[in-house]
Write a structure and sequence with these properties.
The protein has 672 residues and is of the alpha+beta class. The protein folds into four domains: 187 residues, Glutaredoxin, CATH 3.40.30.10; 318 residues, Alpha/alpha barrel (Glycosyltransferase); 62 residues, no CATH class; 70 residues, no CATH class. 51% of the residues lie in helices and 12% in strands. It has 26 helices and 28 strands. Strands 1-3-2-4-5 form a five-stranded mixed sheet, with helices on both faces. A four-stranded mixed sheet has the order 24-23-25-26, sandwiched between helices. Strand 23, helix 25 and strand 24 form a beta-alpha-beta unit.
Length: 672
């Protein structure tokens, strides 16, 4: 045994000796933190040690927040954190702290809010915060170049400037930091009198979305574009509630352009995180599990309304690629990098001559036309001679196979192997809902859900994340509970397995105990960071919890929980009323309250036979529940309004309930 230990230690020492620098991040589990373990910067992880050292040395904290597959995080690392001169400035003037935003979404949420109150706009990654040893922030930025340029101060200027400011004007710095923290607290704990919402909220949201909509390329920005899945889902539901064609038109325009655009990997499938151009042509090439989970769900939803084969193809190809790249014994890794060997999109891009030569060799007919249909151009369409595939016409399966073979000769980008509870639950639920295309998706997703619970819920405690071959250590946060509860309620409706809804209820009680206090939901169990309803990079965990509460209440006949959900949503009503399009997932929860959920009841055998039909009902808020009935029954919270042995009668009665017409008092939904 001693020999084995000696050999292991010797091997570790030898491996570390290959690097010129090694800092304390080498002892961390996070792949992102480990990426910075050999920087010349004396990084510490977030914790007591870092802040005690800052107080002892009387130095400000240099806080850097990012994630392992972030392109601009890599750029800043290459330019600054691997630069010995800049690292020396950081080490001389600061106590540097690194945070993985995926490991600590609570800290990221808090400091993104710091950035927002200091700059009056949203932040991003990498996020840079300079603050006192007492955590009072007085400088914030996202990416900072190494050198000054284009009116922006670089690291060589910023580092000494704000360290000197701290030492020479300490009182001023402290006051500024206190003022920032006070504003952050005001934002996070803002309380407004509840506002009475009604069905007109649907039209108000629609009008707001129209103002941001890009009529040429779809999406909701004229510059950098994120998919904004929750906004598209809101549009689809508004269309079914109001029959306003403009709602469906905006959703379809966005979905079509993304599906044909460069943000979708036309060769292998699955979506990149966002596009840097208005026309969706130029993505940053990281693939996130959460991005694809939300898009798979919304394309599935759109298919139930439009029956467009394109949407089915997108879902099938996305699931295939995510399962292939991220799947790990039933669970899923978190993301893949944008860069390969420091080159952005290196794995994904093509040179025209290389592609043409390969197609000719494979005997593909009219290879020039095939490449034209993929926008792979002689002069390139992305960076120099390189092209990112964008679909303009039909492409043969042989062409795709040839281009896939070209990629196989390259090194695939780094994959962050963190298994995050919230993101896994998000993807598992989306895959479950895609059973309308392939019944095996439901079977596989249910197995994954069981594996997730077995892996992350240990001795009555839920955990946030783990890495392969290691035990989970970090306790779960609100997002993990919210998304897992939602996945469990969906699993119940697709299987009629009572265990899922009971597990969901058990988790909700734990979530309420850990994250709820005096009317406020928090992201973390220490109740330091208040949860909000804004859908930032994926749907707000708090808003998802609103939906999960409604599901649970209706599926378990828990009127007390239903009123608690209603009260919780009501506390957000002022924000929703003021700008419903800014909070799509929360707005949908409010619309559920106003228009009303419908629960279809029957026995298990009958329900299992009509699951596919339920998904196609032209009303967005339909649940199903097992009851000892021979036929069907459809009910709202207040009453059951139709019984029949024929499912078609039930579906028709539900759809007829949407008899909306514009009136001074809002939208008349008929008798309830």
């Amino acid at each position: 045994m001693r020999v084995i230990i000696f050999l292991f230690v010797s091997l570790f020492v030898w491996a570390e000796a290959q690097y010129k620098y090694t800092n304390e991040l080498i002892y961390e589990e996070s792949p992102y933190l480990k990426q910075h373990a050999h920087n010349p910067v004396h990084w510490l992880s977030w914790g007591k040690k870092a802040f005690e050292l800052a107080k002892k040395l009387d130095r400000p904290i240099f806080l850097s927040i990012g994630y392992s597959t972030c392109h601009w995080c890599h750029v800043m690392e290459r330019e600054s954190f691997e630069n010995e001169e800049i690292a020396e400035l950081i080490n001389r003037y600061y106590v540097p702290v690194k945070v993985d935003k995926e490991e600590r979404p609570d800290l990221d949420k808090f400091y993104q809010t710091v950035f927002r109150v200091m700059h009056h706009r949203s932040g991003g990654w990498p996020l840079t915060i300079i603050m006192t040893p007492e955590k009072k922030p007085y400088f914030s930025a996202t990416y900072i170049p190494a050198e000054d340029g284009y009116g922006v101060e670089g690291m060589r200027t910023v580092l000494p400037k704000y360290a000197i400011l701290y030492h020479r004007q300490k009182r001023r710095v402290q006051k500024r930091g206190e003022a920032v923290l006070k504003l952050v607290d005001t934002v996070m704990h803002a309380k407004f009198n509840p506002v009475q919402l009604d069905k007109s909220l649907a039209l108000k949201a629609l009008n707001e979305i129209q103002k941001d909509f890009d009529p040429v390329y779809g999406g909701f920005s004229k510059r950098v574009k994120f998919p904004q899945s929750s906004t598209i889902e809101l549009l689809l539901d508004i269309y079914q509630l109001t029959k306003k064609d403009i709602a469906l038109d905006m959703a379809v325009k966005s979905l079509d352009n993304m599906a044909y655009g460069g943000i979708f990997d036309q060769i292998d499938g699955a979506f990149f995180r966002y596009s840097t151009r208005r026309d969706w042509s130029a993505p940053h090439f990281e693939k996130m599990l959460y991005t694809n989970a939300e898009l798979i769900r919304v394309y599935t939803r759109a298919y139930t309304i439009t029956k467009k084969p394109l949407y089915k193809e997108v879902v099938l190809r996305s699931i295939k690629e995510i399962d292939r790249r991220f799947g790990h014994y039933g669970l899923y890794f978190s993301a893949s990098d944008a860069d390969t060997k420091g080159e952005e999109g290196g794995y994904f891009l093509f040179r025209y001559e290389d592609a043409l030569k390969a197609l000719k060799k494979a005997g593909v007919k009219n290879p020039q036309k095939e490449l034209e249909n993929l926008s792979i151009e002689p002069d390139g369409n992305f960076d120099g001679e390189y092209s990112n595939p964008i679909k303009k016409g039909k492409v043969s399966a042989t062409t795709l196979k040839v281009l896939q073979d070209i990629r196989k000769k390259r090194e695939y980008p780094f994959i962050d192997q963190k298994i995050i509870t919230a993101w896994n639950a998000m993807y598992i639920e989306a895959k479950m809902q895609s059973f309308i295309f392939d019944a095996t998706y439901k079977t596989e997703a249910i197995k994954s859900l069981e594996k997730l619970i077995k892996t992350m819920f240990i001795d009555g405690r839920l955990y946030h994340q783990k890495l392969p071959n290691s035990e989970p250590k970090r306790p779960a946060m609100l997002e993990d509970y919210a998304y897992l509860i939602k996945a469990l309620t969906t699993a119940y409706m697709l299987t009629c397995n009572e265990n899922y809804v009971q597990m969901a209820k058990k988790l909700f009680e734990k979530a309420k105990l850990h994250f709820y206090k005096e009317g406020v939901w928090y992201m973390d169990a220490k109740k330091r960071v208040a949860a909000t309803i804004d859908d930032s990079y994926y749907s707000s965990p708090l808003s998802v919890l609103y939906h999960a509460m409604l599901d649970l209440a209706l599926l378990t006949y828990d009127l007390k929980l239903y009123h608690f959900a209603k009260t919780s949503i009501n506390r957000s009503s002022a924000f929703i009323h003021e700008s419903p399009a800014s909070f799509p997932t929360a707005t949908l929860a409010a619309l559920r309250m106003e228009f009303g959920d419908v629960v279809i009841k029957s026995n298990k055998n009958v329900l299992q036979k009509v699951l596919g039909k339920i998904a196609f009902i032209s009303y967005p808020f339909v649940l199903d529940k097992e009851e000892n009935l021979q036929g069907f029954e459809a009910c709202t919270v207040q009453t059951c309004f139709v019984k029949s042995d024929r499912f078609e009668d039930i579906a028709k009665a539900i759809e007829q309930r949407v008899r909306t017409k514009e009136q001074p008092g809002g939208w008349d939904f008929g008798k309830r």
